[in-house]
Amino acid sequence: MIVEFKKEDRSQMTKWIGGMKKYTLLYKASGDGCTSTAFHNACNNKGPTVTILYNHDNFIYGGYTSVSWRSIGNFQTDTKSFLFKLYQNDTWSPVKMPIANYRNSIYDHADFGPTFGDRDLQTFSGKVNFDGTIFNLNGKTNFGSSYTMNDENYKSIANGNLRVKDIEVYLVEEEPWRKTPKWNTKLLAELKEKIEKYRPLPGLKIPQARILLVGQVGSGKSSFYNTINSIFRGYITSQACSGNAEHSLTTVYRMYQIRKGIRGKPMNFRLHDTRGIEADQGVDANEICYLLDGNIQDGYQFNPSVPVSTDTLGFVDSAHVSETIHCVVLVLDGTTVDVMAEKVAERLKKLQMRMNQRGIPQVVLLTKIDKICERTEEDLSNVFYSPLVKETVERVSQIMGLPRSHILPVKNYESEMDLNDNVNILALMSLQQILHFADDYMYNHLDKHTEGISFSFQKCNGMFRNIIFIIMSAVVCLLAFWFYK
Ligand SMILES: Nc1nc2c(ncn2[C@@H]2O[C@H](COP(=O)(O)OP(=O)(O)OP(=O)(O)O)[C@@H](O)[C@H]2O)c(=O)[nH]1
Ligand SMILES: [Mg+2]
């Protein structure tokens, strides 16, 4: 029997259940047999499930439970279960009927098929035969005994009968919008080790990858440096001044080092912290060129009334590639993406143009995600299951014209007194990605460099051949002249 739980039905179900979900078929009466044994064999101890009945008169309805079927021979408690209707007489008419008496959410008995409430919906018991077209279910309906019906009844839900084309039960699992390895202490240790061992691409004489942090005032640039520094220091640090103020708190250009442990050596990357961007202040298109090209030194005091120029004290005329920027991190406050001032967005676009001209990779660090999603605030490991964070990432990707994989959500340390494994994991995953992008830039540079060398070598070879040819011709002429003389 071809009946299916279509894409739009799945997304409606996901809206009702919440979060990001994927559905895997566990049981199908027409294939597995309409018996309570087949149902329990397929569905017991699997996790949350949704049961769907495809009525002969084209009504589609069923029930969801967040607890596992287990054949306990009794009711199970579930505050999240609900009954639902998706189609009435082939017409899309979704209705959710929530649990009222949550102690009776499902009746979980080995002799019964899926049963919701105190027989609000008992699909069948024992075995039901298939007559080639329908299953005439031997269950019962006592709608409204444990569920709130929201004006629905047996007639509106199932056309007043239990004749079905099929019954399906799907496993409901969390589906992340971005896949990551399992978050645990092992992953944290691996990420830390990889970053500690990071070396920029050999062959270019670049001892440290240079990462430039730019973004709006108060977006969390300095806090990101503090977060990374805290992770490797082993306790919460706030070496870079951070906080809330009308204008940027960061007034000095700093090329921060991060050491392994308290007295360890600096690692092979630096985070360059800048003054925050405002509608009419902060890093502008000219200044960004000097920053990108490594013309400005560590400790430079940003001065909104005197822009950087070649006359600026300590201006580096032509910096080696090791002193230029290898990746730009655009830091955006996740809570203000929708209300970002037009002028700030325009400014950022202009800066991006300069980065693009130089082929410097850009990523967006989307901060304060704890403030956009409650579930993520409670447990940061929910970040890639949060539809709210996903939507914000998609919007930022459109606004900034960057692929979604370049938008990295983070939560910086701000009020914490102790380190937290999940904050560390998310920040280090982002940093690792940033370092990969910096490597991409270096690979491009290396390719250009080596192509440049082979090109000049070929040119040299050509010139050398020409000289030999001229000398040989001269020798032949001289010999001919001498011979005829
Ligand atoms: N809840 C939360 N607060 C954050 C996060 N990141 C930064 N903050 C807070 O936001 C405020 C601004 O952070 P800063 O790091 O100073 O921002 P900035 O981009 O360096 O700002 P300027 O230097 O002034 O341009 C501080 O109060 C931080 O504690 C975050 O991920 N979550
Ligand atoms: Mg700052």
Automatic annotation (TrEMBL):
The chain crosses the membrane at residues 463-484. It comes from the Eukaryota. This is TLDc domain-containing protein. It comes from Mytilus edulis (Blue mussel). The keyword Iron does not apply. The keyword Transmembrane applies. InterPro entries: P-loop_NTPase, TLDc_dom. Residues 1-173 form the TLDc domain. Keywords: Membrane, Transmembrane, Transmembrane helix. Belongs to the IFI44 family.
